[in-house]
Amino acid sequence: MAEPDPAQGVIDLHVHISPHGCMHAAAQQVIDAGRHDLDVIHGAIDDPGVLLRHMDDQGVRAAAVINYPSPDVIGYPMAVNEFVARYRDHAPQRLLAVGGAHPRFERDMSGTMRHLLDDLRLDMVKVHPPHQLFAANAYVDGLDPLRVLYAECQRRRVPVMVHTGTSVFPGARCKFGRPMELDDVAVDFPELPLVMAHGGRPLWCDEAFFVVRRHRNIWLEISGIPPGALLEYFPRLEQVADRVLWGTDWPSPGVRDMRTNVARFLALPLDPAAKDRILRGNALRLFPRLSG
Ligand SMILES: [Zn+2]
Predict the structure, then answer these.
(1) Is there a contact between 135 and 103 (Cβ–Cβ < 8 Å)?
(2) How far is the CA of 16 from the centre of ligand 1 (A)?
(3) Can the peptide bond before residue 251 be classed as cis, meaning omega within 30 degrees of 0?
(4) Is 254 left (phi over 0), alpha (psi -120 to 50) or beta?
(5) Burial state string for 58-92 with b = 16 or more CB within 10 A and e = fewer than 16
């Protein structure tokens, strides 16, 4: 089985490192259960160097560090944004800062987006409907701060990652994970790069594939899908291979490590050029800074 070439390097667009102690205990238990690599995970919170060395071991050249506020369901406060921006500044050629705002709690979304995008220079904004408790298109039903969030990102061409699919965290509401809601967003914000995280797995992959094929501004990010089963969920993946993005969701439940996922993906019967685009080439088009 071919290993990823460390000199070329995989780009993992979905890695979670969040500040200590900000998760509700029940959510933390979901993350910690059965993990063999808690020392790395906890060490990486205090020191980005620990994550970078771990990425070296795993054959991963660059990673997006995902955060988003979810004070009620998960526990993440708004301060995760400052955390992740500082974290990225340690190694901007290898780390992307992904943060967010909370449309149900935000009173001044324009001001907050100015802070996130102009002061903190977040590389991507994460919207997590099952953990933030609204649909990804809820602005059509009056959740105006969400419209402002998308509009401000579109104006600056900053990608928005939207969680699609279910969630196992206590308090998550899975009904908000449907990919079809991104159809509205892509129609209303045609210049906004939209990264559909998890491809609607495991219930709505057909719907996800339809929406990705329909809209050129939607990218399919495949973290959270067991790589060995990827072609069962997306039999026609190669048709959209120029907009598929690699991610693992490490260290979420069920994700052993980054390298194992890459090895399983490389074993799939896909065109080698498509594999290369998915593992890094597409991410470099979306985030050119990582080429430098
Ligand atoms: Zn995730």
Answers:
(1) no
(2) 6
(3) yes
(4) left
(5) bbbbbbbbbbbbbeebbbbebebbbbbbebbeeee
The rounded Å distance from CA 14 to ligand 1 centre is 6
Query: Three-state secondary structure along 242-271?
Result: HHEECCCCECCCCCCCHHHHHHHHHCCCCC
Q: Are 55 and 63 in contact (CB under 8 A)?
A: yes
- Give yes or no for a contact between 78 and 100, defined as CB atoms under 8 angstroms apart: no
How many angstroms is it from 180 CA to the middle of ligand 1?
A: 19
Q: Which amino acid is at 83?
A: F
Nearest-angstrom CA–CA distance, 268 and 231: 8
Report, as ranges of residue numbers, the positions in the chain whose pLDDT lies below 70: 1-8
Q: What is the pLDDT of residues 156-200, one digit of tens each?
A: 999 999 999 999 999 999 999 999 999 999 999 999 999 999 999
Residues whose CB falls within 8 Å of the CB of residue 111, separated by 6 or more in sequence, listed in order: none
Query: Residue 4: what pLDDT?
Result: 45
Compute and round to an integer the Cα radius of gyration of the chain: 17
- Centre of ligand 1 to C-alpha 112, Å, is 23
User: Which CATH number fits the domain 10-291, given the four candidates 3.20.20.140, 3.30.420.40, 3.40.50.1220, 3.30.70.2740?
Assistant: 3.20.20.140
Mark 157-184 as b/e (b = at least 16 C-beta within 10 Å): ebbbbbbbbbbebebbbeebbbbbbbbe
Residue 8's pLDDT is 65
Name the percent of the chain lying above pLDDT 70: 97
97: left (phi over 0), alpha (psi -120 to 50) or beta: beta
